[in-house]
C-alpha cells in the first residue's frame, strides 16, 4: 500500500477524512496512530472519533508528535545513548544552545571521547529533553539502534497518520524518511501548506519552507491526493483567499456552500471603513479576528467573540471581521509583494487562515482613507 500525502485545503474536511478512514480500518482490526503537533488538533481528532465511532477503541490512538518521539522512539531505547531515564521534555521557543546569539560552551553533540553529550539533547538535570531537538534525538536513536524503534512500531500499529504535516520541519522529515523504510505499516500525511503558522522546532535545517516540504514528500515517493472542495466558505471567500498564494500553484478551492436566504443579501469579502465598524458589528455580529490581544482594543467592550488568527485555525464561523496588519493592508491595496520580504511565511499564512474561517462573509476593517483603494466592495454599498 503506497504512502499518501493528502493536500487538504481549508475547510475541505481533512479531519473528517482521517476519522472516517480510521473507523473503517479499526473495524477491520487495523491499529491506527494519529500524530499531530498542537493540543487543539489532538482534541479535535479524538473528539470527532469518539462522536462518530460512538466511543473509544483500543486500536485507535491520538498522540502529540513530540510525545510520540519521546514515548515511542526515544525512551524505549534511550540506554543506547543515555542511561538516566528521560521523564519528559521542555518546550523551546529558540535554539537552546545559544544565548544572545552566541553558542553556549560545552553544548556540542558529542564529547571528546566520542560519546553523546547529555547537555546537547537534555536539560542540565538530565531528565528532560529539549523540544527543539526531539526529532533529531529520535532520528539518532533509530540510527544508533539499527532501526529497532521502527521494528517496534511495526508490531504495534498498521497505519500512521501525520495530521497538520505542514507544521513539521527539518528533522521531522528525516524521521519520516526512516519510517518510510518499513513496509509493515502505511503512512498518510495530511496538511495544507498555506496554513503553516506553527513549527515543531526552531531550526534552520531544511526542509523549512513550504515548497521544500512538498518536494521532500515527493522525493519520498508519497502519492499526492488533493482535497479542494470547501465545505466551509462561499466561493467569493475561496477565490479571494486563493490570491494570497497564487504564485505557488496550489489547487484552487471550489465551494459547495449555498447560503440560505438570511445570508444571501450580504455574502463575500468586503472592506469596512473604521468609522463604520461599530454599525457593521451591530448589524452582523461577526467574530472579530486579530493578530494579537493588543489589536483592536477599541472594540474590546463590544459583546462579540474575539480571537487571534492562530487560535482560529481549524474553526469556522458564519461571519468574521478581520483587523488587518500593515502587510495585510498593503496586499489589500494591490501590493502582491506585501509579504515578500518577510523572514517566514507566517504573516501571509495567518492572513490566509483568517480569511478562510467564515462561511458567508468576511469584513476587513480598514482606515477610511484607504477603503477606496482596496479593490473590494466597500460596505455599505451605495
Give a verbal description of the structure.
By secondary structure, this protein is α/β, with parallel strands linked by helices. It is built from 13 helices and 18 strands. The strands form five sheets. A six-stranded parallel beta sheet has the order 3-2-8-9-1-10. α7 (171-179) links the parallel β8 and β9. α3 (65-74) packs parallel to α5 (134-144). The radius of gyration is 23 Å and the shape is globular.
Q: Widest sheet: strand order?
A: 3-2-8-9-1-10
Q: What's the helical proportion of residues?
A: 25-40%
Classification by helices and strands = alpha/beta
Tally the beta strands.
18
Provide the gyration radius in Å. 23 Å
Count of DSSP H/I helices: 13
Structural shape: globular
Largest sheet, in brief, is: 6 strands, parallel
Taking the alpha carbons of the first and last residues, their distance comes to 58 Å
- The average pLDDT score comes to 94
Strand content: 15-25%
Oligomer: single chain
Unreliable parts: none
Amino acid at each position: 500500500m503506497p504512502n499518501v500525502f493528502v493536500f487538504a485545503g481549508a475547510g475541505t474536511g481533512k479531519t473528517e477524512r482521517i476519522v472516517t478512514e480510521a473507523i473503517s480500518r479499526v473495524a477491520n482490526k487495523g491499529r491506527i496512530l494519529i500524530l499531530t503537533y498542537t493540543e487543539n488538533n489532538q482534541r479535535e481528532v479524538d473528539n470527532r472519533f469518539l462522536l462518530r465511532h460512538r466511543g473509544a477503541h483500543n486500536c485507535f490512538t491520538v498522540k502529540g508528535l513530540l510525545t510520540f518521539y519521546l514515548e515511542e522512539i526515544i525512551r524505549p531505547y534511550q540506554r543506547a545513548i543515555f542511561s538516566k531515564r528521560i521523564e519528559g521534555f521542555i518546550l523551546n521557543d529558540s535554539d537552546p544552545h545559544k544565548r544572545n546569539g552566541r553558542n553556549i560552551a560545552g553544548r556540542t553533540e558529542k564529547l571528546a571521547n566520542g560519546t553523546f553529550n547529555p547537555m546537547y539533547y537534555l536539560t542540565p538535570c538530565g531528565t528532560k529533553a529539549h523540544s527543539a531537538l526531539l526529532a533529531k534525538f529520535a532520528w539518532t536513536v533509530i540510527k544508533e539502534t539499527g532501526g529497532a524503534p521502527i521494528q517496534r512500531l511495526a508490531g504495534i500499529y498498521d497505519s500512521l497518520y501525520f495530521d497538520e504535516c505542514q507544521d513539521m520541519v527539518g528533522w521531522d522529515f528525516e524521521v519520516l524518511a526512516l519510517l518510510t523504510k518499513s513496509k509493515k505499516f502505511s503512512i498518510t500525511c495530511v496538511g495544507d501548506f498555506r496554513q503553516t503558522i506553527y513549527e515543531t522546532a526552531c531550526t534552520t535545517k531544511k526542509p523549512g519552507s513550504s515548497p521544500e516540504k512538498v518536494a521532500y514528500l515527493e522525493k519520498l515517493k508519497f502519492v499526492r491526493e488533493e482535497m479542494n472542495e470547501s465545505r466551509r466558505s462561499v466561493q467569493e471567500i475561496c477565490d479571494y483567499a486563493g490570491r494570497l498564494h497564487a504564485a505557488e500553484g496550489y489547487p484552487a478551492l471550489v465551494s459547495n456552500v449555498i447560503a440560505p436566504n438570511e445570508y444571501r443579501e450580504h455574502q463575500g469579502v468586503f472592506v469596512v471603513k473604521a468609522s463604520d465598524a461599530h454599525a457593521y458589528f451591530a448589524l452582523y455580529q461577526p467574530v472579530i479576528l486579530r493578530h494579537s490581544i493588543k489589536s483592536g482594543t477599541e472594540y474590546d467592550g463590544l459583546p462579540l467573540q474575539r480571537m487571534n488568527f492562530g487560535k482560529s485555525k481549524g474553526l469556522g464561523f458564519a461571519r468574521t471581521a478581520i483587523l488587518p496588519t500593515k502587510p495585510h493592508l498593503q496586499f489589500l491595496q494591490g501590493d502582491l509583494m506585501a509579504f515578500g520580504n518577510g523572514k517566514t511565511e507566517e504573516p501571509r499564512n495567518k492572513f490566509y487562515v483568517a480569511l478562510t474561517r467564515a462561511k458567508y462573509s468576511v469584513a476587513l476593517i480598514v482606515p477610511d482613507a484607504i477603503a477606496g483603494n482596496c479593490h473590494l466592495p466597500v460596505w455599505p454599498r451605495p
